Amino acid sequence: MSVLAEVVTVALNGLQQGAIYVLVAIGLSIILGTLKFVNFAHGALYLIGTYAGLLITLEINVTDGKLADWGYTPIGLEWGFLPALVIVPSVVFAVGLLMERFVARPFYDRPDTDQILLTFGLAIVVQEVFKILFGGQSYNFARPGWASGQVDLPIVGTFPEWRLYIIGITAAVVVLVYGLIEYTDFGLVVRAGTRDAEMVELLGIKLSRPYLMVFGVGAALAGVAGVVGGPLYAVNPNIGTEILVPSFLVVVIGGVGSITGAVLGGILIGETLAILVAVAPQWSQVGIYVLAAIVLLARPQGLLGVEEVTP
Amino acid sequence: MSDEPTETADAAEDTGTVVERAERQLPSWERVRESELFVVAATTVAVALFPWLFARAPVVSGVLQGYQDLATLILIWGIFAMGFNLLLGYTGLLSFGHAAFWGGAAYAAGVFSANVSSSPILVILAGTAFAALSAWVLGFVSLRRGGIYFAILTLAFGQMAYYMALSPLAGITGGENGFTGVELGKLFGVFELRYPVPGLDWLVGTWKYVLVGGIAVLCVAAANRILHSPYGMVFRAIRENEQRAEFVGLNVWRYKLMAFVISGTFAGIAGSLFTIYSAYVPLSSFYWTTSGEVVIMAVLGGVGSLFGPIVGAGVYLYVENIVSGVQQLTLPFTGPAEYLTLVEEPVVILDGFGAYWHLILGLVFVAVVVLFPRGIWGLFEDVGSALRRLGGGR
């Protein structure tokens, strides 16, 4: 393989890695930026998305956990991947709405440490519920049949087709969300709320509806990430917390509340991981934290973040 | 102008009277309870009685027999949670990266014991020093952003420590297998740690417990001293209103960094003791669930009080080690199956109860955050003051 081909392959791998982080991080970022609510349970939403996707796309065989005790060993709907890509985000969107109304809203006025503690506790509860239902073991989330092959790319040669789909789906979703935030009236209110919520309220715009929607959209994005990212890793109850930490790094690197920032941060982290895996694998995980430290020392508000308006 | 000195004198006199009056009104019991000597003495007595009450006293039933080691572990985690609470409860900073100091100290202590000296005291000092140093570095980076960012950054750098130990430093740390080469010598060159204390083994058990208990008392004394000093007052001022503390001319960033280093040092002491306790350092001591556990302990027990987190550590470890072994939740509670059954046919409420312990703990944690921000200790205090009111006191 030529050097060029190798470089492009690594770049594509990085893009695909980053894509999942971008999907999770955008949700985190807009919720944190707009609602000033820090959601440690965002990984739990990803977890819900993955398991829901798993249930819809194929029949899974449960061998331990409560479901097996109750006699439901093979479960699943075998509807395929595309319905999952529509149904799962809708379901997680609804979960997000419930979360905003019953979890986040009563805590907007409490100190942010309380918000973190609450969502952290919730994340544990969700994780444990899944562990009880499905057991602790890992499931294999198969790629959809139409995308499981290899594809011939000009410079690279063969490349797994599914990875290209991940990049494509993520790009489409990001464009959609970007359009929603940048070019609609709803987005205008959200952006204004991110900059200075008090001023928006003073202008006579009630923020509770947009807040509800932001939380729902953010959650739905985590759901999409769960379905799209599911086939990449083995599915077990710990994946929610495993995705949470790098996604938070993406938010912090990119700048809170900025969608372009989340995309940039996600790509940076994805590429760093891919390059280090190719060059010095044992440093790959450490590298992203070093990257985060460097960015923060140079630019505490994140690459594309704005200085917050102090209340 | 001429009456100004008189005024000052008056003011001074006034303050004097106010203080005196306040002291006179304070019931003597409360004054005693506040005093440092009492806190240390009470802690010493409690620590000395704890393993006996916990594991050997006839009143506690057979359920707890053989849990001497759990008593030691509770004290170790108690030190960890107490140090964590200096940061969360008193300075208002929520760190999710304290596993880095606990684990870092544990590894440093282990490596030190294998390569330099196996004297327990020196091992503890080495581990603690390493933790304090890394707390200074991590605090320096993490404290660049306040509030939520601080929590996220400490979480991130804690994970970084985990991955460092897992792979690039695997040559030193043993990677996934953990560090197995811990060597432990005699305490002060005389007492073998795993031997029972002659004449007192019915009360405190082994020398290991004496060492851990002694250090726990020292830690309580140190934390109590810090919190009641002007320095500790500044921590509380920062928690209450950071901006105001800044305006009166305090260098808030410096105080926060010091609070972080102090709590990292406590975590280091606890981590080193853990190495001595288990003679092995698992890689999981670096994983962020360790940070999560200490967060749960502190919040469960009650932040903002000296002893709350220690109680929280006790409850957490008790549930983790004993309740999780209970197969069936029955009425009346009968404990693990192999121990005596009080009733012939107890009513089974929940089968496979042990498997749910984490879920139940999570739910209790959420409930505490929502309903009792001051935790179990706060509940104790409320009940205590209610009783005193009933008894006709203030």
TrEMBL record, chain A:
**Which family does the record assign?**
Belongs to the binding-protein-dependent transport system permease family. LivHM subfamily.
Which CDD domains is this protein grouped with? TM_PBP1_LivH_like
Which InterPro entries does its entry note? ABC_transp_permease, BCAA_transport_permease
One GO BP on record is: amino acid transport
Q: Which residues form a coiled coil?
A: none
Q: Which PANTHER family match?
A: ABC TRANSPORTER ATP-BINDING PROTEIN (PTHR11795:SF442), BRANCHED-CHAIN AMINO ACID TRANSPORT SYSTEM PERMEASE PROTEIN LIVH (PTHR11795)
Q: Which domain of life is it from?
A: Archaea
Q: Where are the transmembrane segments?
A: 20-38, 45-62, 82-104, 116-134, 162-181, 211-235, 247-269, 276-298
> What is the name attached to this protein's record?
Branched-chain amino acid ABC transporter permease
Q: How does it sit in the membrane?
A: Multi-pass membrane protein
Keywords, alphabetical: Amino-acid transport, Cell membrane, Membrane, Transmembrane, Transmembrane helix, Transport
Q: What is its main location?
A: membrane
The record's Gene Ontology cellular component field reads: plasma membrane
Q: Please state where this protein is localized.
A: Cell membrane
Automatic annotation (TrEMBL), chain B:
**CDD domains in UniProt:** TM_PBP1_LivM_like
Classify the source by domain of life: Archaea
- Pfam families xrefs: BPD_transp_2
Task: Spell out the subcellular localization from the entry.
Answer: Cell membrane
Keyword Transmembrane helix carried by entry: yes
Q: What sections of the protein cross the membrane?
A: 37-55, 67-88, 95-114, 120-141, 148-165, 207-227, 257-280, 286-308, 355-380
Membrane topology of this protein: Multi-pass membrane protein
Keyword list, A-Z: Cell membrane, Membrane, Transmembrane, Transmembrane helix
Concerning InterPro entries, the annotation shows:
ABC_transp_permease (IPR001851), LivM-like (IPR043428)
Q: Which GO terms describe its cellular component?
A: plasma membrane
Identification of the protein by name: Branched-chain amino acid ABC transporter permease
Native species of this protein? Answer: Halorussus caseinilyticus
